[in-house]
Amino acid sequence: MNLGAHMSTAGGVHRALERGRSIGCNAVQLFVKSNTQWEARPLEDGEIAAFRRLRRAFRPGYVFAHTSYLINLASPVPGLLEKSRDSLVTEIERCAALGIPALVLHPGSHRGDGLEAGIERVAESLNAVFTATPKAKVRILLENTAGAGNTIGSRFSEIGGIIRGVRRKSRVGVCFDTCHGFAAGYDIRTTRGYDATFAEFDATIGLKQLRAFHLNDSLRGPGEHLDRHVHIGKGMIGLPGFRRIVNDPRFFDLPMTLETPKGEEMAEDVENLAVLRGLRRGAAKKMNPPG
User: How many domains, in total, are found in the chain?
Assistant: First the structure.
């Protein structure tokens, strides 16, 4: 299983791989720059070399990145839109330098300008960004959202609309976040709900576009549009939904990372990963999720 977690880059981007390997991850997500600031310090040659060396040692394993939360490719404000596009170009270039093949992106918010206009703007933005980074072998993974406010991407049809507007489709894919999907109304707790969820995904986007998972339980119920991640089995999704995902042969080769709360020692990640692996093995004994 390509199971892991989002890891801190404190001390250098290579430290994310060290931390992930120390707790048995074979999938790691990280930020390639500050997720709350526009500016990014240049990556030093030694830092890039250290990351690439550890990346080679990490095999078999999957490494991907997540963009800054400031980026909004759907913004109707010209200044913010330009800054968002420039920032995404920078992050793609950093991923390319580090040898990271995929970068997860929240589609953004139309800020009251309308869903159709927002979807079109995201697609146009991605086209501009891909034109500016023609040699980068980095795929943007659009992440589904919980659907609060004016955010785009809570329905699969919205993500499908963005992808249809992108010219270089080989450079886009999807990362499915379980908490976001559940909060948006995709109830994966039952077999019927699970099957319906991925049937709709396939019909509107195509399962071949699904490239990664964020595995997070949800504090609140389906359709409440509240993005609050909790530990596996401790939320409203519960263990059945995750059991279905980790045992679905369609997804065996995809990386699945946690974005659940944790401390510096990462004990919560260790326990959450043990729970997920126990579900895959069909372990008879009860696995207790972290509190």
Answer: 1
